[in-house]
Amino acid sequence: MLQYVLCDRExxxxxxxxxxxxxxxxxSPFLFIGSGFSMRYAGTPTxxxxxxxxxxxxxxxxxxxxxxxxxxxxxxxxxxxxVREEWWNGTALEKYINNAGGKDIGRGEQSALKYIxxxxxxxxxxxxxxxxxxxxxxxxxxELTQFSTINVPxxxxxxxxxxLDTIFPGYSVYVGQNEMLMSxxxxxxxxxxxxxxxxxxxxxxxxxxxxxxxxxxxxxxTSKILTMFVENPIIFIGYSISDPNIKKxxxxxxxxxxxxxxxxxxxxxxNQLIFIRWSKSGNESREIYRIxxxxxxxxxxxxxxxxxxxxxxxxxxxxxxxxxxVMRLFKNQLYELATEHDPSSKIASIDIExxxxxxxxxxxxxxxxxxxxxxxxxxxxxxGLHEVKSSQxxxxxxxxxxxxxxxKQRIEYVSDKKRLRAWMPIHKYLAEITEEDLxxxxxxxxxxxxxxxxxxxxxxxxxxxSSASTRKFFQEKISKSELTFExxxxxxxxxxxxxxxESRLNAIFKLEKNNINSDEFEKYLRDIWDDLPNxxxxxxxxxxxxxxxxxxxxxxxxxxxxxx
Length: 564
Known about the structure:
Elements: E1 3-11, H1 15-23, E2 30-33, H2 35-42, H3 47-57, H4 62-65, H5 72-89, H6 94-99, H7 111-126, H8 138-147, E3 154-157, H9 163-167, E4 172-175, H10 176-182, E5 190-193, H11 208-216, H12 219-231, E6 234-237, H13 244-258, H14 265-268, E7 273-278, E8 285-293, E9 296-305, H15 309-317, H16 324-339, H17 352-360, H18 376-383, H19 390-399, H20 407-414, H21 427-432, H22 435-443, H23 450-464, H24 468-477, H25 485-490, H26 501-508, H27 518-528, H28 538-556, H29 560-563
Helix pairs in contact: 3-5, 5-7, 5-11, 8-15, 12-13, 19-28, 24-26, 27-28
């Protein structure tokens, strides 16, 4: 039997900083989400409230089935008998019978109870602020928006509703122990609905008989959850620290660990668990609870929050380079490759961002990926696979690069629609590409919009790179006839106040192309590069794009007849 005792409490000022301390040096956390989450965003009922509503709908007195505060699974079992009788012989449940298409759906001893439970939950969600965001409190709207951007390996929940399925369409959902047992679980990009789902009313773990089956068959689930708890931090959301479901799971895990040769593993568990609890008072604090089970005392942190925005924001900021759904796809294909006797030979390459979009839309992904050993740079150079950030293009322009791409690959990359908002050079690559390669690039079906995108990038430097305000500043200090590159970079204020490099560059951007020596500008840019701010990142990028325009636009013009 687990016992919880509050042993320490202190106010905290920064939720994110507290989480950083608790999760420092650890793997990405799993989430363990309970009923409080769905109650907050969709107004779903508590377990007891759900049973009371079913009793009322059936014309029954709930108190009759819970006379002495019996445990809820036992109450559900007793109630199921009367609900079944009413389903077949009464009239109170006629609406639900009609929705079900007839009485046959209630043939199982507890089927009617579970079907009605699912209908109540689904209707509550459908009519809630979760599905009608305009009616939701602005704070809750912001929380949900932020929550949808998190990227955690997986989510475990005892909730029946479809909220998590809706928020993370790219995650694979496993309902109950049987699906977890019979499926190739990858441990990433997955939602585990261990107590069933409204998508299959018979899957609900609701009555005492359900819980007995759950416990009797729980060896695999316990071992799976144990692995998650040991390898990853677990953040509990929507649970009380004394929740009976959590008590049972923690007890099972501790019992398993007691048989481990290294008994210290039990105490490692306390460093993997974090409870997040909503504070009704609005006071944000950190509490430490002592959990006693047998001879073991563990200390578990609990963070009380006034809202969940900082928590969800933190989980968004720690986003992995590859999203959980994409990583799951990779792992799943590795599993299939290892287990299939006759693997197929199909090979395809696809941009990661495009892959994420397809997964989010539940589109079929008819491709496999390559796993191998070799010289990485050579492989990337020969295949054209994209593993390059836009910032690398900016840096390499002045300082060289290990990006082993030709002009054709570079033009395709910088002209991708997803990157048009970023400042990236193109004239140099147009000057270098052969007409044959450019024609091939422009006519490929996958690049049907590339002409427009190239043209947009070419014209952007001429129309959007300058800042009139900073040029006006220098016009007031330097006569128009003397407003030259040399005067702008050498001008000093009489009072010795500093003029930022950003102001000087923005003034230079407004000068006529023929009045600037590209080599001198390149040398100036190299000299000041380390002193330029990294934020906003657009300043360095704009400067490189302007240099690209100065040095190579005349040479690239020869290719424009192919683009126009």
